[in-house]
Design a protein that fits this description.
alpha/beta; Jelly Rolls; TIM Barrel; 3 domains; six-stranded antiparallel beta sheet; five-stranded antiparallel beta sheet; 29 strands
């Protein structure tokens, strides 16, 4: 079905539309974003049940990545929207498998030339009840103009549009941009990195607290509250505020499958570059290190990077960093656990059936990976997981999703048992719930009844959701503590607190972790969480990007240039140091992401160094100053940097 032929278009936010032909539109929006709505007809509503894919072709020539949002909305207002990242100058087919509207996946598989594709909104929409389709773009630095054509529902996967062009050069740099600091040749690359390596031979001293204050020591990192501030305490008994950077690795692989039409010639068959190839990816970061340093590239990268981190006053190696580098360096580090326990049946996305005995068994296996770090005094602590996908839904009702599943999960059995014990007789449950069930067994067949909103939002559902989340936390945590009693369990790094129930069981952690992509840490929220749980908080991720260099996307928080980016970093870190309940902040990440995207399509300018291992000097200058000020700010002998940064609209997906 061709949507433009069949539907009336309703414009939003002063959007201007020109019909190019029966299947093509030229869309112009202001910097505030905009788009259009398609009110579905009876025929097109039925077509959603007859087809498998929603597709369209998009083209634009903006400076940065265009985010196209396709929103599918029920008459009730419930909706799911999909964010597609579209590169400038590349005719791109966006393709949505309609099955994805069940909401079970947060990130979708990439189609050719498409960047990150991510879901937002409610837990799911029902294809049968979709009433409207919206195609929009969010606010941006400038006004936007783009072409969209061939909006269709298809039964078969489409053949995606691909056009040959060398989007990047042999060093992985963007061919559609020029910027100060761009490397002009492999000879210049080698000269720059050789010089940096020689300069690094003036060894740096690790940056730790330099003072007379001491705390009791137990030989490992621990936490303490001094009456004013929470602190990490080093194995030697020194106060420690963790200033870390994530992903300290030589590699930042670019997914090349589906992007072949945009690539330069790759060194296929050249044995020198074997380590730069990895299944569906090629790593220009590693290739550039090989070009500069030859066979000894990894050792020289480790030496150079270790000295840079100390020069920049980092004191912690963050998540997902290279194991060889961690062994090489003397800096403390955090440990990210892998393969959080699962069950064969999920309640929603990655939330397991926590009453399934297999969850306990898998948690024991999961905890065994801590054996290798149990006696390592350099370990600050460990994270059990990062950003669970189920928690991305605001006010998620896990019990509603569980009770509506056709499968009989162990969680559902436990919920029915809880109701039977609480109400004893089905009549008392019917009276409380305003239902007409014949027995508690009826609850196993969700098709046979419909619960009123007051029940779904009522105390039974709220209580049992907390029970489920507590088991989700408590079972693996207990197993981890049995294997490694020495180190701090630093939680699961929620992306944000989408519901108060997410805090259930978190008082069992030694440190609560959250990722915080804001102008500055939320002091009120951090203080509230710390007091409620009676433990300190650490920020596992934050970042800032700049629009003045080679990447066409600038992350979740963005600035015009590297100097403003540095000021934003300084503001964030020094404000963080002034929050009594906060004991550290870890920046995401060491390297820039690839121009054509990592495995999932993210391609943000957020690194300390670019693809040629060149630091962003204006950014690093402000970053280093902030680190030098942290302990004085923490001790209240210096006020935190207070100049509010100037941000631009994000290009995050």
């Amino acid at each position: 079905m061709q949507f433009l032929k069949e539907h009336v278009i309703n414009l939003s936010n002063k959007t201007v539309v020109d019909y190019m032909d029966d299947v093509s539109l030229s869309i112009a929006t202001s910097c505030n974003g905009g788009g259009f709505q398609l009110d579905l007809t009876a025929i097109s509503k039925h077509a959603f049940l007859q087809n498998e894919y929603f597709v369209a072709d998009v083209f634009h020539e903006s400076e940065d990545v265009l985010v196209i949002i396709c929103r599918f909305e029920e008459r009730s207002g419930r909706f799911v929207q999909i964010h597609f990242g579209i590169l400038p100058h590349v005719l791109t087919t966006i393709c949505l498998p309609l099955s994805a509207l069940n909401g079970e996946k947060l990130f979708l598989e990439r189609y050719p030339n498409v960047m990150q594709t991510v879901l937002r909104g409610d837990p799911a929409v029902d294809l049968e009840y979709i009433d409207s389709v919206y195609i929009e773009t969010p606010s941006s630095r400038y006004s936007r103009k783009f072409m969209i054509s061939n909006i269709e529902l298809l039964t078969n996967e489409p053949e995606c549009q691909v056009k040959e062009m060398k989007y990047i050069d042999e060093m992985g740099q963007n061919n559609f941009r020029e910027w100060l600091g761009r490397i002009g040749s492999t000879l210049q690359l080698k000269a720059r990195l050789t010089q940096a390596y020689e300069e690094a031979k003036v060894r740096q001293r690790p940056f730790f607290f330099d003072g007379e204050r001491k705390f009791a020591s137990n030989g490992f990192f621990r936490t303490d509250f001094d009456g004013t501030n929470w602190w990490l305490i080093s194995p030697e008994g020194d106060p420690f505020f963790s200033i870390g950077v994530n992903c300290v690795r030589p590699n930042s692989p670019m997914k090349i499958k589906g992007m072949e039409n945009l690539l330069p010639s790759l060194p296929i068959g050249d044995n020198r570059f074997t380590e730069a190839f990895d299944e569906e990816a090629f790593d220009f970061h590693i290739a550039n290190l090989i070009r500069a340093f030859g066979e000894d590239w990894n050792n020289k990268w480790m030496f150079l990077t270790n000295e840079r981190l100390k020069q920049w006053k980092f004191n912690t190696i963050g998540n997902w960093s290279d194991d060889h580098f961690i062994s090489f360096s003397e800096l403390p580090y955090v440990f990210q656990m892998r393969d959080f326990p699962e069950t064969s049946l999920k309640i929603y996305r990655d939330f397991p059936d926590v009453f399934d005995p297999a969850y306990q068994d898998n948690a024991r296996k999961f905890a065994k990976q801590l054996e290798k770090i149990r006696d390592d005094r350099r370990v600050v602590g460990y994270f059990m997981r990062n950003e669970p996908h189920w928690a991305f839904i605001n006010k998620l009702n896990l019990v509603e999703l569980m009770i509506n599943q056709r499968e009989t999960s162990f969680c559902k059995r436990a919920f029915v048992d809880y109701l039977a014990k609480r109400y004893v007789e089905i009549g008392r449950l019917n009276e409380a719930w305003q239902t007409s069930l014949t027995s508690f067994e009826d609850l196993f067949s969700s098709e046979s009844f419909k619960l009123p909103k007051s029940v779904i939002e009522g105390e039974d559902f709220v209580f049992f959701q907390k029970v489920m989340i507590r088991r989700y936390i408590e079972i693996p945590l207990t197993c981890c503590k049995e294997v490694d009693p020495n180190h701090l369990n630093m939680g699961i790094r929620y992306a944000w607190i989408s519901s108060e129930s997410l805090l259930e069981g978190c008082e069992l952690f030694d440190v609560f972790s959250i990722n915080c992509y804001q102008d500055k840490p939320n002091k009120e929220q951090i203080t509230s969480i710390s007091k409620k749980l009676k433990i300190p908080v650490i920020i596992g991720e934050f970042h800032f990007g700049g629009a003045d260099v080679g990447l066409p996307a600038y992350g979740i928080k963005a600035t015009e240039n590297q100097l403003e980016r540095g000021k934003a970093y300084r503001y964030y870190v020094e404000q963080a140091a002034s929050v009594p309940g906060l004991i550290g902040v870890h920046y995401f990440q060491y390297n820039d992401q690839p121009v054509l995207g990592r495995f999932d399509g993210e391609n943000y300018q957020i690194g300390l160094v670019d693809v040629a291992q060149q630091p962003y000097e204006d950014f690093m200058k402000e970053l280093t100053i902030s680190h030098e000020n942290v302990y004085e700010v923490r001790a209240r002998s210096k006020k935190p940097y207070s100049v509010v940064p100037r941000f631009i609209a994000k290009t995050g997906f």
